[in-house]
Amino acid sequence: MALPATAFAGDRQLGLSEVVEKYPDVPRLVALKIDVQRRGVHYTEETLRHVDETKHQLRGTYIFGSRDAALTPLPESLILRDGTTIITDPTPLSQSPYLVDWADDHFVLRDGDAVIEEVELWPQPAYYDKTTSRGTPMKYVITARPQRLNVFTSNFCHFWANNKGCRFCDIVTHLKEQKKEWKIPIRLDAADVEETLREALREPGRFTSICLTSGSDTRGPELFDREVDYYVETLQAVGRVFKTKRFPSQLIASAFNEKQLARLYAETGLSSYTADIEVLNERIFDWICPGKAERVGYREWQRRLVAAVDIFGRGNVGTGLVGGVELARPNGFTSEDDALKSTLDEAEDLASHGVTTVYIVWVPRPGSVFRDQKNPSLEYYVRLARGLHDLRVRYGLRADFDDYRRCGNHPDSDLSRLL
User: Fold this and answer.
1) 214: closest CA among 231, 201, 197, 198?
2) CB 45: neighbour CB atoms within 10 A?
3) The pTM is what?
4) Could you tell me which CATH class the domain 126-418 is placed in?
5) According to a count of CB atoms within 10 Å of the terminal CB, is the N or C end of the chain lower?
6) With 80 as the cut, is the pLDDT of residue 173 above it?
7) With bands split at pLDDT 50, 70 and 90, how would you rate the model's confidence at 300?
């Protein structure tokens, strides 16, 4: 695959307007979305005066933390004019984020003094103000994106039990923060999930799919058996809400073996399965994801993804990358060109076997081992988005459950709307 020149002119990274000019085939709003995720946002006081708590969705329970290392009730996130969802998080001014400001009777994005784009805040779903019959606030059971419902079944990852969690991850640190401040359940009750889902779907036309995920649970007679048990229980509760056997759903989970995958498919109405490998390079994977490397291994993780295609079908199996973490110091790639080539080569091998690869923009979070790192250039992320999109086109793969409507967290799958 021919790759364009590197993002740097000397030591200076190309800015948004320069990247948009260099890559005219990538819509400006997609490039902007990437840059907002790279740099984060800061809400001005004028913006906060115009936030309506009865209309706008405020930050709620989430599986990972944010750059401000706080649980302040700020707006959840942003929507661009094309309907693109930006999943970002509040960032201290010292890190030079974009500003979300109020001007001419609407919300805008500013880069310094310059107004870059109009934006809107996420609308709050009606069920957020309700509780389950067990007394659990529904907003702590199922969280909403503009068109997707998220079920974070458990906010604990057992790879951290022996301090071998992924180095970019702050799941356990954030769990402790949320448990202290909001008294959220560590593990969801399946009855609460069913009841909340029924209430959420009373809002007609709002949601198009449901996604389940959690931290890995390594316990059981076989590795991950307890995790599979819990997902089966929860997915069966979800299935009782629907009239059809299959319902529009995604599971983002550990790399299960064939017996576990077959059980999930046979005993639930799950539509698609994702097991995030995080980084597509075995040497860097072993360094960044020591728990996954020790208990499963890089090649076995890939083998299990390919095996899942025989069960769920081409285009219904995916893996996710924390895009840019392959350049983390000191053991990551030192060249963006080398990192991109390695990633796309490995992604192409997966695509040839029917596995879709998407990425999220790496955010160095204060609760993670990589808290003091810096993510790569905007141009790198634009090139990565183009490369992964091109692979899906070449191999005829879909990213239906990770697209711009249902997920909104993957700049590469935003490009699917161009097809």
Assistant:
1) 231
2) 8
3) 0.93
4) alpha beta
5) C
6) no
7) very high
